[in-house]
Amino acid sequence: MANECVKGFKDYTGEEARIREEIRKILVKNFELFGFEPAEAPIIENEEFVRGDNSNDEAVSDIFRLKDKGERNLALRYELTFQLKRLMQNKKLPYKRYQIGPVFRDEPTTGNRFRQFTQCDIDIIGSSIKDDAEILAITSKILEELGIKAVINVNSRRLMNEILESEGIKEKDRIEVIKEVDKLDKLSEKEVKDNLKKYKAEKLIDIFKKSEKYFEKYASYSDVQQLKEACSNYGIKTNFLPTLARGLSYYNANVFEVKTLEMKESVCGGGSYMFNGAQSTGISFGLERLSQLAKLKNKNSQTLIISLGQDKESIKLAEELRENNLSCVVMYNKVSKALEYANAYLIDKVIFIGEDEIKKKKLKLRDMKTGKEEMLSQTELIKKLSK
RNA sequence: GCGAUUGUAGUUUAACGGUAGAAUGCGAGACUGUGGCUCUUGAGACGAGGGUUCGACUCCCUCCUUUCGCUCCA
Questions:
Q1: Residues A236-255: what's their mean pLDDT?
Q2: Exposed, middle or buried: residue A28 (CB in 10 Å: 0-12, 13-18, 19+)?
Q3: At what angle are helices A174-182 and A157-166 packed, to 10 degrees?
Q4: Are strands A95-104 and A73-76 parallel, antiparallel or unpaired?
Q5: pLDDT value, residue A99
């Protein structure tokens, strides 16, 4: 059928859409609380800008490309961070911004991977390791608010490089070696070891198996050490995972990842990187995955007003409710239809306005869950609904 | 992209080499001030294109889609 969604793309309606909106609100609230300011940037950029210098990024090979009538080579953004190179221009540092928007990747899809998905990013341009900790503190606060139980894994790219260097792994093999090591949680130790033999790197496996204490002998372990100390000021816990690499190649120091038991894909990913000579740090939340995992109730706080031939009064009441920040819908058709509407859309407060109510100057409020009805004055009603 | 898998109304599904039945949801009504029960009624489907066949939703091929691996990522 021609009206089907394209592979990897999705519609969101009803409960699902409401939950996504709810999560967005929670994210924005927390981003603002930590002093980040909003920013928006186009979905389409010049292909050259999108590709950047991360040519060995796998994600880069998955970009959607297009051309305009002027034959410009354009692309859909596949992440948000690179746009900061432009946004940060002329900004007083540290520049703290949040950005929420769709990104696109022309790659295979699975249950939790789409070709359009929404990233929610916070970044601090001009940062230190203390800012890494702040980023993780926000992350942990948000996860808690959403009722998501997760582990924050951290590692340092510099540490990983130092280890590879000290083991004499050739520069050109490092990316491949890191990829193999990263598979340790999936493949058996032996398989990874066999794969590593190609690069004469099989010794690595014994190193990465060691406890955290062992890594203290590397100078770059201080990245992790400092991060841990900074995190303890916020009272949050992180898990040192020496094999953690993260894909995007611009990361140059600490990297982070948020994992849950329910989902094999990570919920958030981030790290520190250098843009225009400024050390920076940030993290990205995947909205689709958050809404998959979040324990939020689908609340519809609307009120339905049924007009029984009293349209003028009903509209007046509706406006009154809206003045008081109460969301409401007015219906003028048959009572049974109106109640069915309330049912279908999970509205549990219904107000009747008919001759009787006008005469008594009281309104009838029905609770759809319990079936209880009561007559209330308008002020009592507003008080009750505001709760 | 490769390998496997899937495809019947919005959703869940039934049957058959002779063009499809149900449940639920949706619309209208029974019921002109009371829903989630009941009854009547309406709209709604064989993913697309080829081929085999007198005839294909059913068999074959291609593409698309679904799900799962690999690769990689939010």
A1: 86
A2: middle
A3: 110
A4: unpaired
A5: 97
Rg (CA), chain A: 27
Tokens of A101: 């928007």
Nucleotide nearest to A180 (CA to C1'): B71
Asked if A269 contacts A113 with a C-beta cutoff of 8 angstroms, the reply is no
Rounded CA separation A269/A122 (Å)? 11
Q: Where are the domains of chain A?
A: 14-167+203-293, 303-386
Q: List the one residue out of A90, A93, A85, A101 whose CA is nearest residue A40.
A: A101
Rounded to two decimals, the pTM is 0.88
Look up the CATH architecture of domain A303-386.
Answer: 3-Layer(aba) Sandwich (3.40)
How many Å apart are A266 CA and B45 C1'? 38
Query: For residue A321, is pLDDT > 70?
Result: yes
Which positions of chain B lie under 7 Å from any protein Cβ?
Answer: 1-2, 25-29, 31-36, 47-48, 64-74
Q: Could you give the CA distance from residue A268 to residue A138 in angstroms, rounded to a whole number? A: 12
**What token pair was written down for A322?**
């809206």
Q: Is the pLDDT of residue A21 over 70?
A: yes
CATH topology of domain A14-167+203-293: BirA Bifunctional Protein; domain 2 (3.30.930)
A349: part of which helix (H) or strand (E)?
Answer: strand A349-353
297-356 of chain A touching strand B, CB 7 A cut-off: 308, 334-337, 339-340, 342-344, 352, 354-356
Cα–chain-centroid distance for residue A357? Answer: 48
Is residue A132 within 8 A of residue A156, CB to CB? The reply is no
Residue with tokens 């942990």, as numbered in its chain: A140
When pLDDT is cut at 50, 70 and 90, the band that residue A57 belongs to is low
∠ CA A372-A374-A378, rounded to 5°: 135
